[in-house]
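Q: Mind making up any chain with structure tokens?
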Amino acid sequence: MTSTFPDISISTDRLVLRPFEAEDVPALAEMMSDELVTAWTSVPHPYTTAHARDWALREAPAERTDGRGIVFAVTEFLTHRLVGCVHLHHTDWRALSAEVGYVVAPWARGEGYACESVLAVAEWLFRDQKFERLELRTAADNTASQQVAQKIGCISEGVLRNAWIGRGRTEDGGWTELRTDLIIWSLLPEDLDEMRERPAGDPGYAAAFHDWS
């Protein structure tokens, strides 16, 4: 029997993580059309409103109901504006492990939203769902995503050589596919415990747990 995650929402001081809704489609289409999203993810390009609607209303819910994972729309608590997406996938119900992916809208970057939302999901995954491992994979040149992994306490476990296909700009302004390495990161329940025990003045602690409880 396939296990499934519950249909829930998660709140932090600044954010609400919830299932996608029809009202999110325009903002989702805009977010996923950003150049950095195109470069470092496998989403279609160009990313259309039809793609966004299919993801928000069909594919994302099916991730949960089919037992593959769960998708959260990340929104600001005060404005309800869509700031990003967190996706648990490649879920192994026997090993109690999952992989996490995340995207933040261009206008919302630099506010600590990626760290805050991924930590909230990790806390829920470990505490409520009793999972034992969360994995991240970042392209070798995607330094922003690597910084998120480091700030939330992940441990780098190694490199998968030539394992990912990203995208790069061509001289005529188009896009071309580029092979790159993947860095493997992991987060375990005890890693979060260690993060909480760091001094309040520690830069890593402050960056990772900014306004989060």
In short: The two ends are 34 Å apart (CA to CA). The chain is about 35% helix and 30% strand. Residues 49-65 form the longest helix (17 residues). Strands lie at 10-11, 15-18, 70-76, 82-92, 97-104, 133-139, 155-169, 175-187.
